[in-house]
Structures are given as structure tokens and as C-alpha cells.
Recover the amino acids of this structure.
């Protein structure tokens, strides 16, 4: 599968008496609709694709290797960059794996702060995903509306931790800052204003016939296929598999919270098409609003961080934890050799697995559909390459 | 088009297009969300940012104790401090405190362990400049004597407000060990 | 305009010059005036208006720094494009590449010859006016194909071919929707079509009978597709093909393509106004020729520009259709319904040779009801988003 540049591969099929050529197109690293620097080499027969070969690695920054140099505490800001769209989950993942290695318990209020930050980030990440998906399909307005709401969430998180994208909010053993005064009121006001806007968004674009024509019944991924190809998160749930790490392998304080897990039901097409992946995300945003309201009501008082030594030296061993990130089940694995620096860190992200299924699912689709497929799988390049 | 019945398709299209256009028209008569930075804002954007905002780093050398906690905490090694014991006065003297803002990733790990809040983030974010060297902030011009935190409240009128602001910044952090580190320094 | 020139000749100007030469020179002069004063400014101004309208729909402010409220933005953009380097790709087909923008421009500008700006303001009132318009705007297809092929870029080629298929296909429902109007008036001339309507809305052809009402929507949709506007803007699908068939163009050539597209918006509006909305008709308020001409021009401009605004609004709202869906819409939905409209109008004319005032008025009320229902939905959305509470209701588009 080595392709030097992109040569035109000429296939002269004399079967029908017509000589046709298969075009090799390069949907290159710089393209307005690939989500970050991804490259696809598309072999198309006119409009219909025969193969779409992904080429990854343009955003590889050796983040896992860097963890071996900066140590456990210093690695926390780097985890933001693993998936900068949903950074709180990465923070939480790293915090949790270090806590598991050293056997530290996070105080209750700290866990609630983590969930609050994480669920806000989930809403923001889904807004971005849904907004860019409709933008790629052609509607420019819902994208801006989604980003306007994202701005409001960014403002809230800026009050919480001082940054808008790379939060570095959590620390090993808890979180770095408690909720500032007035935060709960502002957050509740935001949630009250936000929930009707999801309905407005649905009125604008979700059930629009043209939009449904573009995403319903496109790129159907069945449940068995999704499991085979290692899809996680909203992608998996859209294919009908009812699995959510928050409910099935609960961590943190999720057992104390009540929420539904939206699963794709093929209401506008087949189960597992692009529309299901889209609508699962929209519904998850509503569920996150529910979770947030419960957290604000149920939060106990107390410390938000456990006592962790400055020179953090967990005992030798390894630990693997899962977090339900916005993009699915994100796995964090860390091997410690007893020193201040980890021996090996590995992140398992949902987007990397989703790249594999694009080739399979896009045979026979049109080039315009490839854009819809990539967008519906919610692939972000930093997660793919780390 | 999806096969849902010919007439049903037409009716659905007309209805959803109509609804979508109603939504967009309703947005046309709403106030835009844009903040017209930098010249058409009511107050300077920097003054609207929350206290915890992690902008460009600033060091108040008057209250810096020379403990090197920030240098050790920085994951990128962008803080370089030269501190040595002055043989005559038996106190610590700093000759160099450089922060390379080009490398800094504004993570806030340096301001967390600071015992007095000397190193802290400001709401300033406009740091663009024409050369890379100008991004290295050199805070020490002449050798500075490191600060020794007093047991009681600070009495020097020049230093007290700085210490207040610094401690307020540090107290925002929830980390229990930062407070205990400050107690160790004071002892 | 012919009467105007006849009047001048009768008063003794141009003595000794053959009539045809005077006519030709007059058309040239008026054409130049229309091109320089009207088309360039309207096309350029439309880019600015589109950006502001889009921005307000998207909760943001558009360009508002260059000149008061940003009015000079389009001028500055045009000057910038003119100053850019003219790049011709090395492997491109040079003569075709260079000529393509001009072919497109020709197809677009020639349409203005028959646009009736007022009862006396038309460059050439041909007796095949609307047919000429349909034919000459098809010249754009040739230009787009040339641009797509000559760019030596696979993405441009895809864009050019898509566009050619699209424009050629949508000529059919557009033409078929013009037939009912032609049947009603018996003439293809633009001024003739307008003169058969009146200034009251219920005398407009859109409300003449239910079939022309449907033909109006079909024509507007087909015209949007011919102008490469969303939801049919595949040839320039920004998210797929960068810029489609104009990807390789820079500088003045890009400016020409740009202007042709935005000016086409106005042409769509003008044709819709002429055929369906009564053109330049005004109630009889003044006897002065100059004043009534000015009023007619304003009425026509407002009516046609409104449809340009509607096209911008639709572009902001709807996603793009895929190529095969585009063809399905054309051949399976628009063409059969357009045929039904033609047959229906013909039957209507047999049953009601003089038209039916009652039905026209009823259709007018239906139109009003649709608009009322629309505003009710708008208020519903404003209420649900609690806009009044948050103090966000702002009617002025210039804030």
C-alpha cells in the first residue's frame, strides 16, 4: 500500500467496450473538510469511490514518549493536547491512571468537580462535532450557532480553570481549583438557555429533508461490524450496541447519577447510518445537561484534592483505566518502574479505530458521501496521531 | 431521495425548508454574539477576564523567595533561575530569572507551588512580537535579594499589596500541599 | 428605448445617420451604462450584502470596518483581486483557461439586454425576449466546462462536469415553468409579459391560477440551480472541492467568475419578477414621465433584489444536495410537475379564457396566509429561545 505521490492508475476495462480510467484523487492533508490533517487517497470511478485509503501521522507529536521525560505531574498539560477538543477527559484519564498506580483516592467533591468539568466538555465537543458535520454537508448557519454555544461553555470553563481549550484543570488526586463563587448560578443559567436551543437546532437542520437525504442510509455500520472494527462511544451506540463505559464499567461518581444512554434506532433510515451517529450526539448533549443539574444539586462539601507528594513515585507496576470521552472509550495505560518518570504511557483513542472503518464503508459511496462519513465518525486528527 | 412516497417527499421538503427559514429569519433579528475586539468593546477585554485566567506570566521579584519550586515544576523547562548564597549577608541573591514565553504553554503548574504567589498569570494575552528573542522575559536587571516571608503580616507598604495579591492567587488553588509548602518556607 | 431613440431622431439629432446605425449605437451606449453603472455595482454590492445578511443569520457581524458600516468592503476586495498575480498553471490548456472567464461573463452580461427595468427602460425589447434569456444564460455552461477542463486539476474537472450536468438539466424545468406564462400572455416579449399583469398583487401571474403558483416555485428552484446557488452549489462545494472549477483561478479571472455568480442572483430575481410578480407596474400616481420611470425602476429593483435576498437566505439555511439527488430532484420531481403545470394552465385557459378574478384573489389570500404562518413560526422560535428576556431582539441589520 505504498503510494509515492499520486500517479494516475490507468485501468482499461475492455469488458464493456468502453475504456475507462480510475481517477486517483488525493484528499490531502490540507483540505477544508477533513477534520485536521488527515490524508485520504481516493480511487474514484467518476463520482463513485472504489477505495479510500487513509494516511495518518501528520499530527504525530510523540506525546506518549514525552511523558517519560516530564514525569507524572508535568504530563498533565500534555494530556490536554492528546485530544484538544475534549481535553477534560484526557486530564481525567491521566489522573485516574496515576491514582490507580499509587492507590490514591480522590475526595468526593473532587470527583464531582471532575464530572462537572467533563460533562461540560462533552457538550462542547459534541457541539463542535455536530456543527462541523453540518458544515461539511453544506449548511453554514448551524455551525455558527453551535460554536456560539461552545463559546459560552468556554467562558464558563475559563472562569473555572483559567483556560479555554487546554484546561489542565485536573491534577493527580483531584482537581486544581474548586468551583469559583457564582459558578453554579451561571452554569444553571447557561443550561436553562441551552436546552431550548438544542430543539431549535433540530428544527433548523436535523430533520431537514435535504440533510436527511445526505445522511440517512449512508454508510451503514452494523453492530457486529462496529464491534469488529473497534468503534467506541457514539459511533458504537449508533450502530445499536448499548454500551457506555459510564454505566457498564462505572468510575468516579457515575453510579450516583441517573442518566439515559441514547442508542441509535434507525429512525430516519437504517440503524448505524450517519444520521444515527449524529442524533446520538445531539441526545447525549441533553443527557449531559441532566447530569450537570444533578451534580450541582448533589455536590457535597469538602476538599477537592487528595494529598499527593510533589515527587510522585508510584510503586512499580502497570494500570489501565477507561474513560468515556466524548469520542468514546478512551483507554489510558501506564507502566511505572518505581521512579519519578513513567516507563511507558499508551493512549487508546476512538478516532484511530474509526479511521480503519472508513475504507470499508466508503466502497461504492460517492465522494460527497466520504465527507459525511468522516464527519459523522467524529474523527479529530490529534487523537488519531497523538 | 429517500423513498417515502412521492407526495410525502414534496410535502416534507416544503415543510422543513419553511421551518428552517423561519429559524434563520428569527436569528436575523437577534443581536449578534460578536465582541468586536479590539476597538469596539465597552471595556478592555483584559479587564473582563476572570481572576484565574492563565495569561502571560509575571514575576513580582519583591516577594520571590528563590525556592526554585516553579523551575522544578515547569514541564518544559522554560524558567531559568540563578540563585546563590551571598557570603557576606548569608542571604540568597538572585542574578537571573528568565521565562521563555515562546516555550511556555500556559499550563499554570509553576504558579501552583509558589509559596508567596510571586510568579502568577496575568490577564494579559497580547504577546505577539516580531522576534523570538523578545519573547524571553528577563525579570532580573540587578541582583535581587530573595524575600524572606515574615511570621506575622507584612508591614512594608510597597510589598504588602503584592503579597496580598500573590497569596490570593495561590489560595485559589485547592492543592493542600501548596499551603503546607508555604508553611514550611515560613518556618 | 426604441421610442426614445425615435423621438430623438424626430427632433433632428443624428441627421444623415442611417436609422439602424443610430439604434445600434444607442444600444451600445445603454448597454455600457447598464454594465458599468448597474451590473458592476450591483454584483459587487451583492457580495457585501450577502456577507452582512449571512452574518446576522449566523449571530455575528459581517464586514463593518472598511468605510461606513463596511460598504466599501466589496470595492476593496475587487481592487485586491485585481492586484493579485495572474497564475496560469503550467500544464493547463492555456487558450481555454484564459478564455473561460470571459465566456461565462458574456453569458451573464448578455442577459441584461432584455431585462425590463421600467416601461421605457429596456435596451432591446425583443419579441423573443424570454427565449433569448434562457438561451444566452446557457452559454455559461460552456465557460464552466472550459474552466474545469483547462485547469488540469481533477477536482476542478469534477466541479466543471457536475456544473454542466446541473445547468443543462435544470434548463428543462425552468423552460417548462415559463410556458404557462407564455400561454397566458401569448407573447415571449418581456415587456409584453409585464404589460399583461397589473400593479395589484392579485393581478400578478403568480396568483393567476394554482398552476402558475406552483410554476413559480419550480422556476425559482430551477433558477437557483442554474445559478449554482445552494442548495445546488456542488460545483463550488467549499467543503469538498475547495472551490470547484475556479480553484486554479486567481486575480482578475477569479473576480470575473465571482461577479458572474453574484450578478446572476440579480438576474434570477429580475426574471422571477418579470414573469410572476408584475414587473415594474406601479399605481397611477403621477403624470410626469421622468417620475413614473424612476418609480417603476425602483419598484422593479426592490422586487428583484428581494429575491436575491431570499436566495442568500436560502443559502444560509439549507445544506447541499448530492449530485445524484440533484438529478433526481430535477428529472423525477420538477419536470413532471412542470409538465402538469403546462397542461393545467392550458386547460385553465380553455375553461376560463379571460382568467378568473375570484380564484386569483383566493390564491392571493393563500399567499398572504403562508406569509402570516411564517411570521407566526418566527415568533414561536423567538419566544422559545427567550430572546426578549435576554434583551437580544434587534431589528436593525446595521448593528
Amino acid at each position: 500500500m505504498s503510494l509515492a505521490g499520486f500517479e494516475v492508475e490507468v485501468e482499461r476495462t475492455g469488458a464493456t467496450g468502453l475504456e475507462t480510467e480510475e481517477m486517483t484523487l488525493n484528499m490531502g492533508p490540507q483540505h477544508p473538510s477533513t477534520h485536521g490533517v488527515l490524508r485520504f487517497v481516493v480511487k474514484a470511478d467518476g463520482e463513485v469511490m472504489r477505495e479510500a485509503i487513509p494516511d495518518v501521522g501528520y499530527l504525530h507529536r510523540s506525546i506518549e514518549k514525552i511523558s517519560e521525560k516530564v514525569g507524572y505531574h508535568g504530563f498533565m498539560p500534555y494530556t490536554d493536547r492528546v485530544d484538544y477538543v475534549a481535553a477534560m477527559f484526557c486530564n481525567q484519564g491521566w489522573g485516574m491512571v496515576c491514582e490507580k498506580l499509587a492507590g490514591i483516592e480522590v475526595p468526593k467533591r473532587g470527583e464531582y468537580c471532575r464530572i462537572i468539568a467533563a460533562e461540560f466538555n462533552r457538550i462542547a465537543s459534541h457541539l463542535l462535532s455536530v456543527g462541523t458535520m453540518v458544515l461539511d454537508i453544506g449548511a453554514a448557519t448551524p455551525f455558527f450557532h453551535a460554536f456560539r454555544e461552545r463559546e459560552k461553555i468556554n467562558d464558563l470553563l475559563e472562569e473555572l480553570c483559567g483556560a479555554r481549550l487546554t484546561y489542565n484543570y485536573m491534577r493527580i488526586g483531584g482537581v486544581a481549583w474548586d468551583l469559583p463563587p457564582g459558578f453554579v448560578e451561571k452554569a444553571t443559567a447557561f443550561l436553562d438557555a441551552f436546552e431550548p436551543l438544542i430543539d431549535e437546532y433540530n428544527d433548523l437542520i436535523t430533520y431537514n429533508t435535504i440533510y436527511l437525504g445526505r445522511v440517512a442510509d449512508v454508510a451503514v455500520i452494523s453492530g457486529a461490524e462496529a464491534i469488529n472494527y473497534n468503534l467506541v462511544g457514539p459511533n458504537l451506540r449508533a450502530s445499536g450496541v448499548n454500551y457506555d463505559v459510564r454505566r457498564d464499567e462505572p468510575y468516579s461518581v457515575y453510579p450516583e447519577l441517573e442518566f439515559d444512554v441514547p442508542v441509535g434506532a434507525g429512525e430516519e433510515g437504517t440503524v448505524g447510518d450517519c444520521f444515527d451517529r449524529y442524533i446520538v450526539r445531539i441526545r447525549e448533549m441533553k443527557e449531559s445537561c441532566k447530569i450537570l443539574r444533578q451534580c450541582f444539586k448533589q455536590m457535597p462539601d469538602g476538599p477537592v484534592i487528595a494529598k499527593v507528594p510533589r515527587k510522585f513515585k508510584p510503586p512499580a507496576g502497570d494500570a489501565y483505566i477507561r474513560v468515556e470521552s466524548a469520542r468514546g472509550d478512551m483507554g489510558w495505560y501506564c507502566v511505572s518502574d518505581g521512579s519519578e518518570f513513567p516507563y511507558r504511557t499508551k493512549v487508546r483513542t476512538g478516532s484511530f479505530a474509526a479511521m480503519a472503518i472508513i475504507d470499508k464503508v466508503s466502497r461504492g459511496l460517492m465522494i460527497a458521501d466520504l465527507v459525511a462519513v468522516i464527519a459523522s465518525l467524529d474523527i479529530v486528527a490529534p487523537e488519531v496521531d497523538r | 431521495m429517500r423513498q417515502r412516497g412521492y407526495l410525502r417527499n414534496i410535502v416534507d421538503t416544503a415543510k422543513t425548508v419553511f421551518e428552517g427559514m423561519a429559524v434563520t429569519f428569527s436569528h436575523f433579528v437577534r443581536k449578534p454574539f460578536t465582541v468586536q475586539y479590539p476597538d469596539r468593546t465597552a471595556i478592555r477585554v483584559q479587564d473582563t477576564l476572570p481572576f484565574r485566567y492563565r495569561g502571560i506570566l509575571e514575576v513580582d521579584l519583591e516577594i520571590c523567595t528563590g525556592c526554585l519550586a516553579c523551575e522544578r515544576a515547569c514541564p518544559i523547562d522554560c524558567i531559568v533561575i540563578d540563585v546563590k548564597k551571598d557570603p557576606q549577608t548569608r542571604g540568597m541573591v538572585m542574578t537571573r530569572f528568565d521565562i521563555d514565553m515562546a516555550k511556555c504553554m500556559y499550563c499554570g503548574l509553576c504558579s501552583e507551588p509558589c509559596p508567596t504567589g510571586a510568579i502568577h498569570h496575568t490577564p494579559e494575552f497580547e504577546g505577539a512580537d516580531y522576534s523570538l528573542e523578545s519573547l524571553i522575559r528577563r525579570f532580573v536587571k540587578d541582583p535581587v535579594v530573595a524575600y524572606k516571608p515574615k511570621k506575622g503580616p507584612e508591614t512594608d507598604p510597597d510589598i504588602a499589596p503584592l503579597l496580598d495579591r500573590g497569596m490570593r492567587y495561590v489560595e485559589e488553588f485547592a492543592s493542600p500541599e501548596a499551603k503546607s509548602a508555604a508553611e514550611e518556607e515560613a518556618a | 428605448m426604441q421610442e426614445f431613440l425615435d423621438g430623438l431622431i424626430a427632433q433632428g439629432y443624428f441627421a444623415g445617420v442611417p436609422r439602424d446605425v443610430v439604434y445600434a449605437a444607442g444600444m451600445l451606449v445603454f448597454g455600457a451604462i447598464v454594465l458599468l453603472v448597474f451590473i458592476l455595482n450591483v454584483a459587487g454590492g451583492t457580495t457585501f450584502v450577502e456577507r452582512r445578511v449571512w452574518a446576522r443569520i449566523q449571530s455575528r457581524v459581517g464586514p463593518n470596518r472598511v468605510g461606513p458600516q463596511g460598504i466599501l468592503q466589496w470595492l476593496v476586495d475587487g481592487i485586491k483581486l485585481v492586484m493579485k498575480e495572474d497564475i496560469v498553471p503550467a500544464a493547463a490548456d492555456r487558450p481555454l483557461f484564459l478564455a473561460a472567464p470571459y465566456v461565462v461573463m458574456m453569458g451573464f452580461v448578455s442577459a441584461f439586454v432584455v431585462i425590463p427595468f421600467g416601461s421605457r427602460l429596456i435596451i432591446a425589447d425583443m419579441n423573443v425576449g424570454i427565449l433569448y434569456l434562457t438561451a444566452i444564460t446557457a452559454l455559461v455552461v460552456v465557460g464552466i466546462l472550459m474552466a474545469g477542463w483547462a485547469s488540469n486539476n481533477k477536482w476542478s474537472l469534477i466541479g466543471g462536469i457536475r456544473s454542466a450536468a446541473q445547468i443543462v438539466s435544470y434548463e428543462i424545468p425552468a423552460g417548462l415553468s415559463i410556458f404557462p406564462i407564455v400561454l397566458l400572455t401569448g407573447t415571449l416579449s418581456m415587456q409584453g409579459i409585464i404589460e399583461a399583469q397589473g400593479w395589484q398583487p392579485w393581478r400578478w401571474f403568480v396568483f393567476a391560477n394554482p398552476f402558475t403558483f406552483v410554476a413559480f416555485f419550480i422556476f425559482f428552484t430551477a433558477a437557483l440551480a442554474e445559478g449554482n446557488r445552494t442548495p445546488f452549489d456542488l460545483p463550488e462545494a467549499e467543503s469538498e472541492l475547495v472551490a470547484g472549477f475556479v480553484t486554479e483561478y486567481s486575480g482578475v479571472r477569479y473576480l470575473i467568475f465571482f461577479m458572474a455568480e453574484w450578478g446572476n442572483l440579480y438576474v434570477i430575481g429580475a426574471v422571477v419578477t418579470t414573469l410572476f410578480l408584475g414587473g415594474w407596474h406601479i399605481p397611477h400616481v403621477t403624470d410626469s414621465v421622468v417620475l413614473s420611470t424612476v418609480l417603476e425602476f425602483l419598484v422593479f429593483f426592490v422586487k428583484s433584489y428581494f429575491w436575491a435576498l431570499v436566495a442568500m437566505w436560502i443559502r444560509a439555511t439549507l445544506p447541499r444536495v448530492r449530485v445524484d439527488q440533484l438529478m433526481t430532484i430535477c428529472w423525477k420531481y420538477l419536470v413532471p410537475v412542470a409538465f402538469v403545470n403546462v397542461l393545467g394552465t392550458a386547460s385553465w385557459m380553455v375553461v376560463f379564457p379571460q382568467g378568473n378574478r375570484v380564484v386569483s384573489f383566493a390564491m392571493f389570500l393563500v399567499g398572504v396566509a403562508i406569509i402570516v404562518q411564517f411570521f407566526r413560526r418566527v415568533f414561536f422560535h423567538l419566544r422559545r429561545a427567550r430572546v426578549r428576556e435576554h434583551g437580544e431582539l434587534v431589528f436593525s441589520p446595521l448593528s
Observations:
- Residues 148 and 154 of chain C are 8 Å apart (CA to CA).
- The first helix of chain C runs from residue 2 to 10.
- Chain C is about 65% helix and 0% strand.
- Chain C touches chain B at residues 53, 55-61, 64, 313-314, 316-318, 325, 328-329, 332-333, 374, 377-382, 385, 387, 391-395, 397, 399 (CB under 8 Å).
